[in-house]
Design a protein that fits this description.
Helices cover about 35% and strands about 15% of the residues. The protein has 5 helices and 6 strands, in the order E-H-E-H-E-E-H-E-H-E-H. The two termini are about 30 Å apart.
């Protein structure tokens, strides 16, 4: 089983990413269940705005698109800015919009049979809103979202330290991340055994 984690931080490598730090908990749990995981920091790649799979002229999205087609599990990881998913996360979802019209040989959409979850960080509230926005878009594209397929961390109201600057409530976020990983693997396994049918 293969998983792809798209880290939608605004920080280019090698800057420390709080979002990646929490996503790493999910990655470790997935690898503990023998899942092959690849992590991509999206901002490190040349991905222009658009809603097509290949925009040419140095567009690096087609490689990520191929990784999406080859994975069983997708984890979208994003920080919270102004109560919203990051602009990078929105860019990724817009590029994934093209997958809505892409089908497999049996007529099912290319995202059918794949499961997805969401990781969110931020030092102010808004995580549930971000989870809902990202998960809703992924369902539109054709991904299956199992129950409790998310984890998040925030410090609470007002300015404060980021995830890597404090141990505040890491226990809850990490435990929830491990449950998330288990649920993603269980749902992906079930879909392998009982795939979604092609449209009539």
């Amino acid at each position: 089983m293969r998983a792809l984690v798209l880290n939608c931080t605004l920080k280019r490598s090698p800057a420390v990413s709080n979002t990646e730090a929490l996503a790493d908990v999910v990655v470790a749990a997935l690898r503990g269940q023998q899942v092959d995981v690849e992590v991509i920091r999206v901002v490190d790649h040349a991905i222009p705005f658009g809603v097509e799979t290949d925009l040419g002229d140095g567009d690096e999205w087609p490689r990520l698109h191929d990784l999406l087609l080859g994975c069983d599990i997708l984890v979208m990881a994003t920080p919270t800015w102004l109560g919203q998913p990051s602009s990078v996360a929105k860019l990724v979802l817009e590029r994934m919009d093209a997958m809505i019209s892409e089908t497999k040989d049996d007529g099912t959409y290319v995202a059918y049979g794949k499961v997805a979850g969401v990781v969110v960080t931020g030092n102010e509230d808004g995580a549930h809103h971000v989870i809902n926005e990202v998960a809703g878009a992924l369902v539109d594209i054709g991904f299956t979202i199992p129950g409790q397929a998310w984890t998040y961390w925030n410090m609470g109201p007002g300015p404060g330290p980021s995830y890597t600057e404090t141990d505040h409530r890491h226990d809850w976020s990490e435990r929830t991340g491990r449950v998330m990983a288990a649920n993603l693997v269980a749902a992906a396994t079930a879909l392998r055994a009982h795939p979604l049918p092609p449209p009539n």
